[in-house]
């Protein structure tokens, strides 16, 4: 396989499937759709630009068909229902990892999702869903109906069904030629209606949506509400019966209960407890049975064993009392009912609190427009946003949300982009300017061409990024996962051990004491708090970041960021505006200022360097006539060389001039003067003589110095990388109060400088623009891309800042520190709870203080532990950044 060029951090397997384009008889494969779009707009310019930049971060491959890899690695997020604790997540994770074709799996208990990386040539979404179901859990499904045009026979039906079934995430597709419709079942969030329409079009038919289930608009919210209603109904039912059961059980408080004959009272308690067990508690027993069938155990196993043991013992005491010694004929129906009630109360409060951790995602989804006014066949029609396709012409009126990403064709306006950038001031837009879906058109009406729709829009990418981050696992969670994986069997063993110790050595009635400790240990030892400790904080933390324009790619990045000790800043576009302009021109006797500028601009039209663009802009502003150049050559770190009318022209630094045999010494004083004020000075030589100097300045951002000061206040060392000469770099470093700087750094060497800083034994964060700085971003422990939300920036950095402001670097690090502090609080509380709770439940305090913990108190403590962890995580929403 020939690698044509290096331009994204993805595998060749990925690239072979992402997209392809043809140019001059050759096929180019892309791993990134953004790169493909740029290539399609101007292939020659794209390839020329790529070849002039060293070690960019993506891959374009030009393979023969025989070279294409068989494996196609894909990733999918599956919404899982039925998980009740961290050990459930471990069980599902193990099942998926053992499935054929699965390369990796991560199951998040808090977000109730399984992220699976798999070989699409060996396994599909349907088989992955079956694997999860076989482990005793469910995968959520959605359905949609498409109207299909052009089907004429059974062969057409087969082609449509196969085309739909090839879409990753589609579980089933059934087409009907008589109704000309296709019913599709798919995994939510992994498939969009646009994907399904494209799949039908790819096999030669037209499709449109005829039915959109209202639940699809916010499936997770609807599912959460349904789950909460079910929990509330079961909790209320159980609570009402438990109150009656308690009244009949606590005869010291309710004397009238004593008047009922004991065996009749036991029978009444049995009749009242059984409905609680069958209706409110059935879920625990069903889940425990499913886990047992798969040779695993979870929290439901503990609850089922604890309440089941108490209920069975009570049944024996009720129906065959002669089987037990007279002093052991007690019933624990109240324990069974109240434990189930308290656990349901805890789950209800936990579920309601967990719903708030996804608030950021719901806000982002709520930003999306629902319809678009599309112009087709000369008519304006309102279409659901799902039916807009790339290339559609859309009319946007004042006050409306821009439906998708696109380019303005007619008209002008001011657009409120605060949902993306956080900037409150509207941005003026003219013909040719890009607009972003979900931003708000403030003043004028315009027509735009849709360039990105569905999951390709910037907002969809942001939502996906936040969802992936919320579903990922931080390194600190590994310990909790390991413990959760062995926790339940260990607890069962400890409960059994406590039972026999009390039975053999306990005081009379020993069986009663043994049963109480057995049930109490099982109930109090809930791994829920441990399982929720990390993911809930991650979900809230990444959501908080998204609300502030800080996109965190994964939980690992959020964890590592708080350890940062050195922040490396690229100068251009990070510390400065990134829009340099010509400030001074010094001429010699041979040419005047305009002639010097015209010569320089003639050469720089061949370059796409930021300084070259400044020179060309200055020449165009003066309407200077530019000459034709030949043999253009860029010399990294020094400048450029070309020919005009057979004479060599040089633009660059003193080093370039010396290498070309010219003496720049007499201009050193002027060069130094420019450098000391932070300006970049370029020598211009023509026909073997230096004919002038052009000074270019990139204005420092107004908030850069203040942000760097705040980084210092966080105890961080700030380092600057720049291609400027030593004196210019020193001037900017002094002006910005930067601790260290490296000057005259060539683009390909930035990563090496980052590596050298890492060798000092410190965690290094690199802040750059997300394109030219990509190798350095990849090398750093944390790459922070200031790309104003561009596609490439989102892919390049571990953290992407939607605003190009260094203040957001400060916010990102503060958020990381706050999140990690919150996680440690949760983990500490969880470990302490179980470390103290289990021994107390086993009766260690009884020999000293005569205290034996009640199973009912154990259930209340267990419920409270989970709610406490989630509530503590929610405090992150109030953190001030």
Please describe the structure with a list of short key phrases separated by commas or semicolons:
881 residues; disordered N terminus; 32 helices; elongated; seven-stranded mixed beta sheet; 34 strands; single chain; six-stranded antiparallel beta sheet
Give the topology, please.
Layout: E1 2-6, H1 12-18, E2 19-23, E3 26-30, H2 33-41, H3 43-52, E4 59-62, E5 73-81, H4 86-97, E6 102-108, E7 113-119, H5 125-134, E8 138-139, E9 142-149, H6 154-165, E10 170-176, E11 181-186, H7 193-202, E12 206-211, H8 219-249, H9 262-280, H10 282-293, H11 299-319, H12 333-357, H13 359-366, E13 371-376, E14 379-384, E15 393-396, E16 405-411, E17 413-416, H14 418-421, E18 427-429, E19 434-435, E20 440-441, E21 446-452, H15 458-471, H16 477-505, H17 510-524, H18 528-547, E22 550-552, H19 555-561, E23 566-570, H20 571-575, E24 581-587, H21 593-604, H22 610-621, E25 630-635, E26 639-644, E27 647-652, H23 654-659, H24 668-676, E28 680-686, E29 689-697, H25 704-713, E30 717-721, H26 726-736, E31 740-742, H27 750-758, E32 764-768, H28 774-779, E33 782-785, H29 791-796, E34 799-801, H30 807-842, H31 846-849, H32 855-874
Parallel strand pairs: 23-30, 23-32, 30-31, 32-33, 33-34
Antiparallel strand pairs: 1-4, 2-3, 3-4, 5-7, 5-8, 6-7, 9-11, 9-12, 10-11, 13-14, 13-15, 15-21, 16-19, 16-21, 17-18, 17-20, 22-34, 24-29, 25-26, 26-27, 27-28, 28-29
């Amino acid at each position: 396989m020939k690698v044509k060029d290096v331009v994204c951090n993805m595998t060749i397997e990925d690239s072979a499937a992402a997209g392809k384009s043809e140019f001059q008889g050759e096929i180019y494969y892309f791993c990134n759709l953004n790169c493909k779009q740029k290539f399609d707009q101007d292939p020659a310019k794209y390839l020329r630009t790529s070849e002039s930049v060293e070690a960019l971060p993506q891959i374009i491959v030009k393979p023969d068909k025989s070279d294409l890899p068989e494996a196609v690695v894909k990733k999918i997020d599956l919404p899982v229902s039925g998980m009740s604790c961290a050990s459930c997540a471990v069980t599902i994770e193990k099942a998926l990892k053992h499935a054929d074709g699965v390369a990796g799996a991560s199951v998040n208990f808090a977000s109730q999702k399984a992220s699976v990386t798999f070989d699409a040539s060996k396994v599909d979404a349907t088989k992955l869903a079956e694997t999860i179901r076989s482990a005793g859990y469910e995968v959520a499904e959605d359905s949609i109906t498409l109207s299909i045009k052009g089907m004429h026979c059974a062969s057409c039906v087969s082609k449509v069904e196969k085309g739909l079934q090839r879409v990753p995430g589609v579980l089933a597709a059934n087409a009907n030629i008589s109704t000309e419709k296709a019913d599709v079942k798919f995994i939510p969030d992994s498939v969009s209606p646009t994907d399904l329409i494209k799949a039908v079009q790819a096999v030669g038919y037209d499709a449109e949506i005829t039915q959109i289930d209202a639940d699809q608009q916010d499936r997770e919210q609807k599912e959460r509400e349904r789950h909460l209603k079910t929990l509330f109904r079961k909790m209320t039912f159980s609570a009402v019966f438990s109150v009656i059961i308690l009244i009949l059980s606590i005869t010291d408080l309710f004397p009238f209960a004593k008047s009922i004959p004991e065996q009749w009272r036991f029978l009444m308690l049995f009749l009242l407890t059984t409905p609680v067990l069958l209706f409110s508690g059935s879920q625990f027993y069903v889940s425990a049975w499913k886990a047992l069938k798969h040779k695993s155990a979870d929290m439901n196993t503990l609850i089922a064993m604890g309440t089941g043991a108490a209920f069975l013992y009570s049944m024996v005491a009720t129906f065959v009392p002669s089987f037990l010694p007279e002093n052991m004929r007690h019933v624990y129906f109240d324990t069974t009912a109240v434990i189930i009630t308290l656990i349901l109360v805890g789950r209800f409060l936990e579920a309601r609190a967990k719903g708030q951790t996804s608030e950021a995602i719901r806000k982002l989804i709520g930003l999306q427009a629902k319809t678009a006014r599309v112009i087709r066949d000369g008519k304006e029609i309102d279409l659901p946003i799902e039916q807009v396709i790339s290339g559609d012409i859309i009319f946007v009126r004042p006050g409306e949300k821009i439906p998708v990403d696109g380019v303005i064709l007619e008209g002008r306006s001011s657009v409120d982009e605060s949902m993306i950038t956080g900037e409150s001031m509207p941005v003026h837009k003219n013909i040719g300017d890009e607009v972003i879906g979900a931003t708000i058109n403030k003043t004028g009406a315009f027509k735009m061409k849709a360039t990105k729709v569905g999951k390709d829009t910037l907002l969809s990418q942001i939502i996906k990024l936040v969802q992936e981050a919320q579903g990922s696992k931080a390194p600190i969670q590994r310990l909790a996962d390991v413990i959760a994986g062995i926790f339940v069997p260990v607890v069962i063993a400890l409960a059994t051990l406590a039972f026999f110790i009390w039975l053999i050595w306990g005081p009379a009635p020993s069986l009663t004491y043994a049963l109480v400790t057995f049930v109490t240990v099982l109930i109090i030892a809930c791994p829920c708090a441990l399982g929720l400790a990390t993911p809930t904080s991650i979900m809230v933390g990444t959501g908080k970041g998204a609300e502030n324009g800080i996109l965190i790619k994964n939980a690992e990045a959020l964890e590592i960021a708080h350890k940062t000790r050195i922040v490396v800043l690229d100068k251009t576009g990070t510390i400065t505006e990134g829009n340099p302009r010509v400030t001074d021109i010094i001429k010699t006797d041979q040419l005047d200022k305009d002639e010097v500028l015209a010569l320089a601009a003639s050469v720089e039209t061949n370059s796409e360097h930021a300084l070259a663009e400044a020179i060309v802009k200055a020449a165009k502003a003066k309407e200077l006539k530019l000459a034709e150049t030949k043999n253009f050559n860029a010399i990294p770190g020094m400048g450029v060389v070309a020919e005009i009318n057979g004479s060599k022209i040089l633009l660059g630094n003193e080093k370039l001039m010396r290498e070309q045999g010219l003496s720049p010494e007499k201009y050193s004083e002027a060069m130094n003067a420019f450098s000391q004020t932070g300006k970049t000075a370029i020598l211009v030589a023509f026909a073997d003589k230096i004919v002038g100097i052009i000074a270019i300045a990139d204005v420092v951002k107004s908030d850069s110095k203040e942000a760097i000061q705040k980084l210092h206040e966080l105890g961080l060392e700030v380092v600057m990388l720049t291609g400027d000469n030593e004196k210019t770099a020193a001037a900017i470093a002094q002006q910005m109060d930067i601790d260290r700087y490296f000057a005259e750094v060539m683009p390909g060497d930035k990563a090496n400088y980052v590596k050298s800083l890492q060798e000092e034994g410190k965690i290094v964060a690199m802040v750059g623009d997300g394109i030219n700085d990509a190798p350095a971003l990849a090398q750093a422990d944390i790459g922070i891309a200031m790309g104003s939300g561009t596609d490439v920036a989102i892919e390049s950095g571990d953290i992407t800042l939607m605003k190009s402001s260094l203040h957001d670097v400060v916010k990102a690090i503060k958020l990381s520190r706050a999140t990690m502090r919150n996680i440690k609080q949760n983990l500490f509380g969880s470990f302490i709870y179980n470390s103290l709770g289990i021994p107390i439940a086993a009766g260690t305090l009884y020999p000293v203080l005569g205290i034996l913990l009640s199973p009912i108190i154990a259930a209340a403590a267990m419920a409270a532990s989970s709610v406490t962890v989630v509530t503590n995580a929610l405090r992150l929403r109030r953190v001030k950044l």
